[in-house]
Amino acid sequence: MSRAADRLKMVLNHLDRSTVHVTASSTSTQVSSYYHNPTLRYTLDSDALSPEQRLSYEENGFVLIKNLVSEEDIDKFRMAFERICKGEVRVPGLLVMRDVAIAKSEFVPDQKAVSKLQDFQEDPELFRYCSLPQILKYVEAFTGPNIMAMHTMLINKPPDAGKKTSRHPMHQDLHYFPFRPVDRIVCSWTAMERVDRRNGCLVVLPGTHRGALKEHDYPEWEGGVNKMYHGIRDYSADHPRVHLEMEKGDTVLFHPLLIHGSGMNQTQGFRKAISCHYASADCYYIDVKGTTQENIENEVKEIASHKYGLDGSIRFQDTWAFRGRLVQGERTSL
Ligand SMILES: O=C(O)CCC(=O)C(=O)O
């Protein structure tokens, strides 16, 4: 019997085949559809995911874990964020992004215009998020035991200034990554407060992780679009959507091909979330020349050359190797 068949048998042994419905947030998938796909491609054997959670990820490309990060830790991450915004600490390599509409407003104090911190691997407090054992336990079910934290973000979605720029266009995170294999990469995204449709929760298109990487570019939005917020032009508008309403500390793990984005923040508060993209340290870099990823490669190289005062000779993969940090096991490749 093949390994995949063995794995399938293990999962099915745990299930009551006639009654189980796999739920992830508001989606419900009947297990019967699973019998037509007798391989478990997206998850690895581990004790972290229940059989239901495992099947849900296989089918939908995401799994939501309630209450995974403590209030206390989230409050500490929030304080670290505020210290950075106030200029009390300087973090090497950190990219501080500002909302395209709010950054130009005279009425908003500077720190309030920060829409995202990216690459916080050198901030010990924020980076502690990426090493939380309760997150790594789940991450290992996707990456295996050698785990790199490749991409870190604290997203501070601002109240929309009326131009709809607080939206994040629908995209696949793999667009940004020159490493593979795709199924050994996973994102963890933790709500730092209640997130719902009013403040622009994540929106996902379940099952799209089973498709290919699509072409991405800046959307043609009248009010402007934030730097590096590429979106997919041709996803099906009819595809079922799930709005991931979450409480503080809830965490969603999702596949890098899952099409997702987030809506406008229609409240007066800033909607905060913290996230990390993990990859197996056994992944390898690829050359994206001549592929749909060439546009983001050029943009990232330009930003990196400017940021580090280089002459443009930096390779796309170097920008990743430089930022990636081992959080478990051995740094075997990436
Ligand atoms: O937190 C959000 O609003 C969306 C974040 C996201 O999808 C990203 O930055 O890739």
From TrEMBL:
Gene3D superfamilies to which the protein is assigned, alphabetical: q2cbj1_9rhob like domain
Catalysed reaction, written as an equation: 3-methylundecanoyl-CoA + 2-oxoglutarate + O2 = 2-hydroxy-3-methylundecanoyl-CoA + succinate + CO2; hexadecanoyl-CoA + 2-oxoglutarate + O2 = 2-hydroxyhexadecanoyl-CoA + succinate + CO2; 3-methyldodecanoyl-CoA + 2-oxoglutarate + O2 = 2-hydroxy-3-methyldodecanoyl-CoA + succinate + CO2; 3-methylhexadecanoyl-CoA + 2-oxoglutarate + O2 = 2-hydroxy-3-methylhexadecanoyl-CoA + succinate + CO2
Pathway: Lipid metabolism; fatty acid metabolism
E.C. number(s) listed in UniProt: 1.14.11.18
Superkingdom field: Eukaryota
Cofactor(s) needed for function: Fe cation; ATP; L-ascorbate
Record-level Gene Ontology MF annotations: L-ascorbic acid binding; metal ion binding; phytanoyl-CoA dioxygenase activity
Enzyme class: oxidoreductase
Alphabetized InterPro entries for the sequence: PhyH, Phytyl_CoA_dOase-like
The keyword Metal-binding is assigned to this record: yes
GO biological process annotation, one example: fatty acid alpha-oxidation
Record flagged with keyword Metal-binding: yes
Keywords: Dioxygenase, Iron, Metal-binding, Oxidoreductase, Vitamin C
Family note: Belongs to the PhyH family.
PANTHER family: PHYTANOYL-COA ALPHA-HYDROXYLASE, PHYTANOYL-COA DIOXYGENASE, PEROXISOMAL
Protein name in UniProt: Phytanoyl-CoA dioxygenase, peroxisomal
